[in-house]
Amino acid sequence: MKPIVSKDSIVYFGQECYTRLNSYLEKANHSQIGILVDSNTHELCLPLLMSKIEKEYDIEIIEIEAGEIYKNIETCSGIWNALSELGFDRKSLLINLGGGVVTDLGGFVACTYKRGINYINVPTSLLAMVDASVGGKTGVDLGNLKNMVGVISESEMVLVDTEYLGTLPVNQMCSGFAEMLKHGLIQDRQYWEKLSDLSQLELDDLDQMIYDSVVIKNNIVLKDPTEQNIRKYLNFGHTIGHAIESFYLTHPEKPTFLHGEAIAIGMIMEAFISSELLSVTQEDLQHISDVILATFPKIEIASKDYEKIMELLIHDKKNEKGIILFVLLNTIGEAKYNCQVSDELIIKAFEYYNSL
Fold first, then answer.
1. What are the residue boundaries of the structural domains of the chain, listed by start?
2. Which residues 6+ apart lie within 8 Å of 284 measured at CB?
3. Of 30, 231, 232, 336, catalytic
4. Which of 57, 63, 59, 58 is nearest to 45 (CA)?
């Protein structure tokens, strides 16, 4: 597959990943190389990556705990201290091998350590391959508030090898699939329809679907790298989805949502709002709801929690001057940003979701 060139980075696919990686490592002559892993990717993914590195380098492995709850400044501090103790300087390289937590957090660590060292993302989850590792967004959560601290700064390269997906449980694959569905909803109706009927797809089609998703995201990012306008499209489903994810993250008696699972709920609710405020037809709303619920079984959201979840909307990064702003759909394949939505309509969206 042809590499996808972003503003300051290149996304490589398949076996070309390792040809490019080895060429880069040889030419760059970094003073030290670190590989950031979590407790899962250390065991399941690191052996494959190490087997692909052709020359002998002095490589330090830095491990963090797996899970969204460790995507915080405390984890960053531990990594910064480890890099410092290992003598990493500004000519060092950090390779982030993992899902969205590792690529987001690892990118942030690299961008801030000694005011910035080079880093490479090797995504190992579907979510990271199609979304988290591409586009230069790095960061960590602040308490239960998603991605509140971070910078936009692209990696040297992103290496997408679907062999790593063999290590993923089904729910993690579904989590990434939510972002692929989002790409179709905001930009490409034909792509959405292709994803809508997975019964017609072969496993070999996955590589092309991932590639198409990265193309959609990259085309948006190239036009608006710092999210001043159309890059906001990529947040469809995330205004409500992030609030749901944050709320459930801090209530141990409730189920914990993976990112994509929460975004799936957010997309249904924001599609409903789109049907009320914009031009999404009832037929398309039902189609969107059916497709998403075919992969993400419905979770009953207690009505007593509506307002508590809504209180978290004020922290959404698209907001301006205290006004909550949504990305909505004009129709499948066409989005609109900076949409104001009343509290009453948000509550109706919760009720719509629960009625399905």
1. 4-168, 172-355
2. 271, 275, 331, 332
3. 231
4. 63
Greatest C-alpha distance within the chain: 61
The verdict on whether 351 is a catalytic residue reads no
Q: Which entry of 42, 235, 245, 336 is annotated as an active-site residue?
A: 235
Determine whether 259 is an active site residue.
yes
pTM assigned to the model? 0.93
Contact 227, 320 (CB under 8 A): no
Query: Residue 69: its pLDDT value, please?
Result: 92
Q: What is the CATH number of domain 172-355?
A: 1.20.1090.10
The reported pLDDT for the residue numbered 306 is: 97
Q: Which of 328, 263, 324 is nearest to 131 (CA)?
A: 263
Of these residues, 68, 154, 156, 179, which one is catalytic? 179
Which of the residues 2, 55, 115, 304 is marked catalytic? 115
Q: Which amino acid is at 122?
A: V
183 catalytically annotated? no
Give the CATH fold of the 4-168 domain: Rossmann fold (3.40.50)
